[in-house]
Design a protein that fits this description.
Membrane topology: Single-pass type I membrane protein
Organism: Casuarius casuarius (Southern cassowary)
Main location: membrane
Radius of gyration: 30 Å
Structural class: alpha+beta
Domain L-type lectin-like: 1-72
Strand order of the largest sheet: 1-2-3
GO molecular function: D-mannose binding
Shape: elongated
């Protein structure tokens, strides 16, 4: 959407009161359009903000012209202050982040038995087919007259 345009494109990322909002201006009209709006985002404190314009295969040229970072001073209750200090990993309410899945339940005995049984049946079937194909090949190779 931003390739080969004759005007600059802009991106705004806001994080205010546990709400992450991303807005874009790719039409060159200086009008912001919502890209994403995610409430309930809890970010840990003490990390740094970084950015990169590398696209991987370096087929595009993206220039980061400027970054404007603001820290807003807001009044917080002691409960909010304590809750914000306890965040160690980024968390979003009612959303599972990739790589943060719950561990899988172990398989039941019946499921494990069925998997092993059908795997063995498939292995025996493959061996039988292999032997039949090998015998046919041997029979064909004996019929050649030189």
């Amino acid at each position: 959407m931003v390739r080969n345009l004759n005007h600059d494109t802009f991106l705004v990322i806001r994080y205010v009161k546990r709400r992450l909002t991303v807005m874009i201006d790719i039409d060159g009209k200086h009008e912001w359009r919502d890209c994403i709006d995610v409430p309930g985002v809890h970010l840990p404190r003490g990390y740094y903000f970084g950015t990169s314009s590398v696209t991987g295969d370096l087929s595009d040229n993206h220039d980061i012209i400027s970054l404007k970072l603001y820290q807003l001073t807001v009044e917080r209750t002691p409960e909010e202050e304590k809750r914000d200090r306890e965040v160690f990993l980024p968390v979003v309410d009612n959303l599972k982040l990739p790589g943060m899945e719950a561990p899988l339940e172990p398989m039941s005995g019946l499921a494990l038995f069925l998997i092993v049984f059908f795997s063995l049946v498939a292995l025996v079937f493959a061996i039988v087919i292999g032997v039949i194909v090998y015998n046919k090949w041997q029979e064909q190779s004996r019929k050649h007259f030189y």
